[in-house]
Each structure stands twice: as structure tokens, then as C-alpha cells.
Amino acid sequence: MPRKPRLFVPGVPQHVVQRGNNRQQTFFDESDFRLYLDCLRLAGEEFGVSVHAYVLMTNHVHLLATSDSAEALSRTMQSVGRQYVLKINRKHRRSGTLWEGRFKAGLVGSERYLLTCYRYIELNPVRARMVVAPGEYPWSSYASNAFGAFDDLVVPHERYLSLASTPERRQEKYRELFSAAIPGGDLNLLRRATEQSAVAGTEDFQRRMADRVGRTVAPRSPGRPARK
Fold first, then answer.
1. Domain named Transposase IS200-like: which ranges (predicted)?
2. What is the pLDDT of residue 143?
3. Per the count of CB atoms within 10 A, which of 16, 18, 25, 63 is most buried?
4. What does each C-alpha distance from 18 to 180, 181, 194, 197, 208 come to in angstroms?
């Protein structure tokens, strides 16, 4: 069965997941994390991709990003892949592929699910039991979004900016979001939308995206057969 084409809609945020080949390690020391972030920032600036939230785990990456054009995200991830892998292989005297062949990506509706996606991404190290609180993990956007720490990769989304009129109050409101657990249904929807190249959003948002791309965009429920 041919792979379902990924959804690329300019101006609509996407949740991106890139995993190491066979779930293998992709970051080997602190300088590797910094290198990836530098590669991502430069490629995003070149091709028109704004990153709102991110986390770099030891063997995979989560991003929440908005693209200026339909091709921008693919070009950005291709550029990052080439530059990062070339330098990592040379530095660590390794060869061969580092990432899975294709990154996963799904659209995220800003009405309800965007801030949930922020939290989903930045809570990854907590769910993995690497840290107790998201602020303890150094390789994510949490410090920037929650406390205003300088991060030249992070570009605030309008939905984030709408939390409050001042940075201090906005960061406080953002931190308050992390006091409650993400509902299991929302977690599952975000995961399925990303894995299936679909949309995590309200029914109205899904209808609008379906009209724009000309195909069904709602993620399939577990066990539901694929449409032919």
C-alpha cells in the first residue's frame, strides 16, 4: 500500500517527529544537541519555518512548527538531516544513516490543540522519567516558553501570545497549564494525527483542512481500517 502523503498547509502548525534509525541514539554528547539546534535554526531561517516548541530526546526529536510554504518543512528537515549527519558521522567516526527515512508530521488546530501540543512536546522527558519537572531538562523550549529564557530558535505562536498581554503574565499562564495532566484522549489524538499524516483539531477545523487539501484528514481510530 502506498504511503499516505504528508499534509503541508502554509501557516498551519505541524507536530513533527523524527526518530533515530531503528530507535537508535542520535545525540551522543551535549555539543551534539547544540549542533542540531543550530542546524535547525539556520535551515528554518533559510526556508521559512518557525519553531514554536521543541524537545530533543536521546533518540528522537519533537517539533511544533509553522511553515511559510508547502515545501518549507521538507526542505528544512532535509537540510538539517544532511548537515547534522555529516558532522556527527565525521565527529564520532561513524558511517551510515542516523534517522529514519521519513519524518512524521500532522497538522495541529490552534483553537484547542495547539497549547496541548506545546505541553505534549515539553513533557516528553517527564513521561520518559528522565526528569521530574520539564524545567529540569535542558534540551527543550520549556525554559523559553515558561520563563522567558533566551532561545534564538523559538518563535512564539499567536495562540501562545494570546495567553496574556505581558511576557511575565503570559509565562505565568503558560506554567499554569502544566499543573493539570493532558487528557488521554488528547494525547492519543495528537499521536495518531502525527503518525497518520492527519489533523489534530476540532471537527470544524478538520473540515476546513479537508477542503483545502482535497482529502480526508481526520485520523483513524485504533483498529479502524484504512480508507481505500
1. 9-124
2. 98
3. 63
4. 27, 24, 11, 13, 27
**Cell numbers of 127, please?**
513521561
Q: Is the model's pLDDT at 201 over the cut of 80?
A: yes
Predicted pLDDT of residue 226: 41
Q: Is 121 left (phi over 0), alpha (psi -120 to 50) or beta?
A: alpha
Whole-angstrom Cα distance, residue 85 to residue 79?
Answer: 10
Residues belonging to the chain = 228
**Domains delineated in the chain:** 14-201 (3.30.70.1290)
Contact assessment for residue 84 and residue 35, using Cβ atoms and an 8 Å cutoff: yes
Q: What is the pLDDT of residues 95-105, one digit of tens each?
A: 888 998 789 99
Which of these, 121, 138, 103, lies nearest to 182 by C-alpha position?
Answer: 121
Q: Mapping DSSP to helix (H, G, I), strand (E, B) and coil, where does residue 54 land?
A: strand
